[in-house]
Amino acid sequence: MHWSRVRGESGIAQKKPTRQPSNRVDSVSPDRLTSDQPEFEQTKSSCQCLTGVIDMSIPVAVNLLVFAGLIIFLSRFRRPKYSLSRQVLAGLLAGLAFGFGLQFVYGGGSDAIAATLEWTDVVGTSYVNLLKMIIMPLILVMMIAAVVRMREVAALGKIGGFVIAILVGTTMIAALVGIFMANAFGLTAEGLTEGARELARADVLTGRQDTMTELGLADMLVRFIPSNIFYDLTGARPTSVIAVVLFGILFGIAALLVTAEDPDRGDGIQRFVETAKAIIMKLVHMIMALTPYGILALMTKVVAGSNAADILNLITFIVASYLAIAVMFVVHALLLRLNGVSLGAYFRKVWPVLVFAFGSRSSAATIPLNVETQVEELNVPQPVANLSATFGATIGQNGCAGIYPAMLATMMAPVMGIDPLSISFIVQLVAVVAISSFGIAGVGGGATFAALVVLPAMGFPVTIAALLISIEPLIDMARTALNVNGSMTAGVITGRFLKDTSGDVSDTGASPQTVVD
């Protein structure tokens, strides 16, 4: 209820005549009190609003107390005997339990859940922002360090060529898997429900599509080249990551050439790069210590903020997507096994990285843990690990740039009068997916950007991507884990291929054969 001043027929507030002072105390009606004492009106209105807020916040306060208790519980895992994988897994399970608990107590779409998530998002969003803060400096320093460590420019082309070939090759396989799954489950865009949220998202994506369709392949390649490195360091463009990668490579090559001309300066350059890298990695470890709490908040939002009805309506697409992702994990395992890698040892060591990627939904944010695991656990040479982790966050993402856009295009094909099983359609789609996989941002929403590139290139509308917004987070978690596993697979296999020339690859003396039989 809102209190308002007395208004005349014209709608303009009318001023009452000033009353003469009197010693007699008259009874005051609410109407007269409203007009004569606006200060009391505001005070009473504020009190009523405050009372309502207090009443509404009681369940929210209880929820936040439980959330705080979970944070205290997770802090008990900050002991040396608990590895990072156990800490992350504990945060993930706690977030799942808390999210399902909110759904069970309040039901989907509850105001209490929305108000609770508004505050828990402070933890989750702050954690994600900290990860974003270090992504660009980390990529830049890691790329420079990788090139400088190689000592020879020729080694850069050899390593980069292997890594990119594996990433793009597995993405093409992922596209085929996505096409097969969409056809096997009979998925089609016909009959998908368009709610208010989906229609609003469709309008936004259609606007972005108009921008993307104005860019040809040549224009897309030009966008990879940075014109202002400081602008790209802010992550302002979808291709900013690959632009920073290119700048880091060029900077490293220039450092190698200076070293060749003046060895004394080369030693100073090496010390400077290693010092900058040590500082960045220390910052990374500081932020990674917050991972369990960030995963707790992020998983709470995913589970509690999901609409059960929407999930049930699109359960077939979810199942098909997860099966496609599982098939690609098997493909990665086969590639590793063919190269003599022990699968049990490999997955045991990369498990913490995959859990982190699953919870954070960001391939780029996983780069530091990815590199550290490759170097320290899998004994992949440092330059190879740097290149594979960084390239894998922006090139050839098997889940976001491979499976997802391929499934959407296959679902749209029957609507557009195209046979999704025709050889010409499959070949064209796989080729488009391979080309468009360059420069896809390794952050949440990267799959949508990939769809904005692939669907218009196939002549399809992008509205289908908006229709799946309700279940996007549920699938994106597994896609991100697949993307990261693909980059680590590329790193391990590249290390195996180059083991005979490890002197050209790394001067650390690390052997890339720790996880072999």
Which properties best describe this structure?
single chain; mainly alpha; disordered N terminus
Question: Can you tell me about this structure?
Answer:
The structure is a single chain. By secondary structure, the protein is mainly alpha-helical. It has 22 helices and no strands. The longest helix is centred in the first third of the chain and has 40 residues. It is globular, with a radius of gyration of 28 Å. The N terminus is likely disordered.
The helical percent reads: over 70%
Largest sheet geometry: none
Distance between the termini: 74 Å
Shape: globular
Tell me the β content: under 5%
- Secondary-structure content class: mainly alpha
- As a whole number of angstroms, the C-alpha radius of gyration is 28 Å
Mean pLDDT: 76
Tell me the number of helical segments per DSSP (H or I, 4 or more residues long).
22
Model regions low in confidence, pLDDT < 50 over at least 5 residues: 1-36, 47-56, 195-214, 500-514
By DSSP, the count of extended strands is 0
Topology order in helix (H) and strand (E) letters: HHHHHHHHHHHHHHHHHHHHHH
